[in-house]
Write a structure and sequence with these properties.
Pfam families: Erythro_esteras. The protein is about 45% helix and about 15% strand. The chain is α/β, with parallel strands linked by helices and about 400 residues long. Strands 1, 2, 3, 4, 5, 6, 7, 8 and 11 form a nine-stranded mixed β-sheet that branches. The protein has a two-stranded antiparallel ribbon with strand order 9-10.
Length: about 400
């Protein structure tokens, strides 16, 4: 047998093994809770489910995650959704969601990248159910006008009149500079000295204001406790802490900023799981690149910064795709690159179903499935080649054969 024939035989065995060990879903648009029953066994005893996505502009990934969350909420008792969006913006929206339309709820909580027809049913679910809570774990501001001030006004606390005015000023300033400096970060250009100096001046002013707000808040701690609002007190302190971190690092070099952002998001998520909602099951919504665990390089995503205890309680689920088009920043659509042979996407594509699931957590290794424990090619955002060790970085994979841009609202 020639080397070529031997290689072809090994490849066929590997792809046949994937087909045999993965679940198929025949229609993403028509599937319902019963189609995700296999997750009950897979996620048994798991408290945190991480739902990744291979890009923020993929309609089918958002729709699939929305349907998975419906299942996790109705069938498995998951009642907290932690989004890759502003911590305070998302949390405060829980207190006003009954007064908002579904679109308004999205407007006041998450980044607009996810405001689409595909995520609409998810926010409809959040709005209709008081026991389903939304929170963010990002230090970045995610909306132009949040409900934080309205949330504070609803608390039965005798705040000084300047407290809410000052909070509003901090939020407004954060949004302004996030947009101003974001233009240069997105294009990887150096911030002009004149603009940078203006930012540094604003940063000093905001630091003083935040310290003053923290002092006022600590002075009111006993009043919060008397009114059984300890959780709300802790959230307000965390909101101010995140704004401090945001202002301190916004002007850093892009690589440094991204590294710090993942570190802050990891700490926020640990706090959400261990202190804010210690007795709840939690769903994490983020990009694949944030959820990878066991990454040992100098840049560690948030998934690799979790405590060993929380990692043991977690199931890391990456979402991948094969062909079609995706959107970048809601504006530009681009056709996906064809995944190379022996890539993760190539192996997964051999399940004939349009959507498939592959559990990596309980697989016994053998000669046929070596690729799951070796450095394997993936296409980040369907474009750029990168490498992961699938079984080391993830517990499971959802795969969609054909994708398209979201239908933005």
């Amino acid at each position: 047998m020639s080397f070529f024939q031997l290689g072809s035989k090994k490849y066929k065995k590997a792809t046949d093994w994937v087909k045999e060990h993965s679940f198929g879903i025949e229609s993403l648009t028509e599937c319902n809770g019963d189609d995700f029953k296999f997750l009950e066994k897979v996620l048994k005893n798991k408290r945190v489910v991480w739902l990744g996505e291979n890009g923020h502009g993929i309609a089918e990934h958002s729709l699939l995650k929305t349907k998975i969350i419906h299942f996790l909420y109705h069938q498995m008792g998951f009642k907290v959704i932690a989004f890759e969006s502003g911590l305070g913006e998302s949390y405060s929206s829980n207190y006003v969601k009954e007064t908002l339309s579904v679109k308004e709820l999205m407007d006041k909580s998450i980044f607009s990248l996810w405001k689409s027809e595909e995520t609409y049913p998810l926010f409809e679910l959040i709005r209709q159910n008081d026991d389903l809570n939304l929170i963010g774990f990002d230090m970045q501001p995610s909306v132009k006008k949040s409900s934080i001030a309205v949330f504070i006004n609803q608390l039965n606390i005798n705040f000084p009149s300047e407290f809410i005015r000052s909070i509003h000023k901090v939020e407004k300033t954060a949004i302004f500079w996030y947009e101003q400096l974001g233009v240069y970060k997105a294009s990887r250009k150096k911030v002009p000295k004149e603009i940078l100096n203006k930012y540094l001046k604003a940063k000093k002013e905001q630091e003083k204001l935040i310290i003053h707000l923290q002092t006022m808040l600590k002075y009111l701690k006993r009043e919060f406790e008397r009114n059984e609002l300890s959780k709300e007190y802790a959230v307000l302190l965390k909101i101010l802490e995140n704004r401090q971190l945001f202002f301190n690092h916004l002007a850093a070099r892009s690589k440094d900023y991204l590294k710090i952002r993942d570190q802050v998001m990891a700490k926020n998520l640990e706090w959400i799981c261990n202190e804010l909602y210690p007795n709840e099951k939690i769903i994490v919504w983020a990009h694949n690149s944030h959820i990878y665990k066991n990454v040992t390089s100098s840049y560690k995503p948030m998934g690799s910064l979790m405590s060993p205890k929380l990692e043991r309680q977690s199931y890391y689920l990456g979402l991948f795709m094969y062909q079609g088009e995706v959107a970048f920043d809601k504006k530009v659509t681009q056709k996906l690159v064809k995944p190379p042979k022996n890539s993760l996407e190539d192996y997964m594509n051999h399940n004939p179903a349009p959507v498939s699931f592959f559990d990596l957590s309980k697989i016994s290794l053998n000669r046929v499935n070596k690729w799951i424990s070796r450095s394997t090619v993936i296409l980040e955002s369907g474009m750029m080649q990168a490498f992961i060790i699938p079984r080391k970085q993830l517990d499971g994979i959802f795969f969609v054969k054909e994708v398209s841009p979201p239908h933005y609202l």
